[in-house]
Specification:
The protein is built from ten helices and six strands. It is an alpha/beta fold. It has two domains: 136 residues, Response regulator (Rossmann fold); 55 residues, Arc Repressor Mutant, subunit A. Strands 2-1-3-4-5-6 form a six-stranded parallel β-sheet, sandwiched between helices. 35% of the residues are buried.
Length: 218
């Protein structure tokens, strides 16, 4: 029977086996109640709104809406909900993007059950938890040891920022592909991502936003 002190958890992952396995594992732990699951970020937003969890265990790479954008929207709408990322991705940019989006923890898939459980409990108590391999870079970020200049548009990936710079400089998609040594499809995908993340109606608005931030002046 659910106790009033149980931590209410939603599990979000686009792989059914991972999602159901994690939900089953967590649901068997004392003091944790899994109140919902979701297969992508967009679905997660609805499930969180309906179930009111304390903690969301969130994958990053998912269709419809990725975990970082979903985290940003969830924590913006429901600040009391804590999000712990559980992902295969460990590059610095993704870790810091997750933190900026409001994540309270970041663990790699393959973390032990105890580590995941402890992260959920710590997040529910208002703490921040990161796996051992993440701890040093997160500590550096939090203490200001990350000294690189803050990039405009932190919601964009490094590739999307490269494309946006060239858009602001007036390059066509074909010219951008040639300059970055990537395919035209990669550029088109990046441009679509830029429009979505900057809420730009089209190329002209994206270019204006980029130039206001200092892009395209070289």
């Amino acid at each position: 029977m659910t106790e009033p002190s149980d931590i209410r958890v939603v599990v979000v992952d686009d792989h059914q086996i991972v999602r159901e396995g994690l939900a089953s594992l967590l649901g068997a732990l004392e003091g944790i109640e899994v109140v919902g699951t979701a297969a992508d970020g967009r679905d997660a937003i609805h499930v969180v709104a309906e179930t009111g969890p304390d903690v969301v265990v969130m994958d990053i790479q998912m269709p419809q809406l990725d975990g970082i954008e979903a985290t940003r929207m969830i924590t913006g709408r429901q600040p009391g909900v804590r999000v712990v990322m559980l992902t295969m991705n460990e590059d610095d940019e993704t870790v810091l993007s997750a933190m900026r989006a409001g994540a309270s923890g970041y663990l790699l898939k393959g973390s032990g059950a105890d580590e995941v459980q402890n992260a959920i409990r710590a997040a529910a108590s208002g703490g921040m938890v990161f796996g051992a391999r993440m701890a040093a870079r997160v500590a550096a970020y939090l203490t200001g040891a990350v000294t690189r200049q803050e990039e405009p548009f932190p919601e964009l990936t490094a590739r999307e920022r490269d494309v946006l710079r060239l858009l602001a400089a007036g390059r066509s998609n074909d010219a951008i592909a040639a300059e970055l040594y990537v395919s035209g499809k990669t550029v088109r995908n990046a441009v679509s991502g830029i429009y979505a993340k900057l809420h730009a109606a089209g190329r002209a608005e994206a270019i204006i936003r980029a130039r206001e931030a200092g892009y395209g002046r070289d």
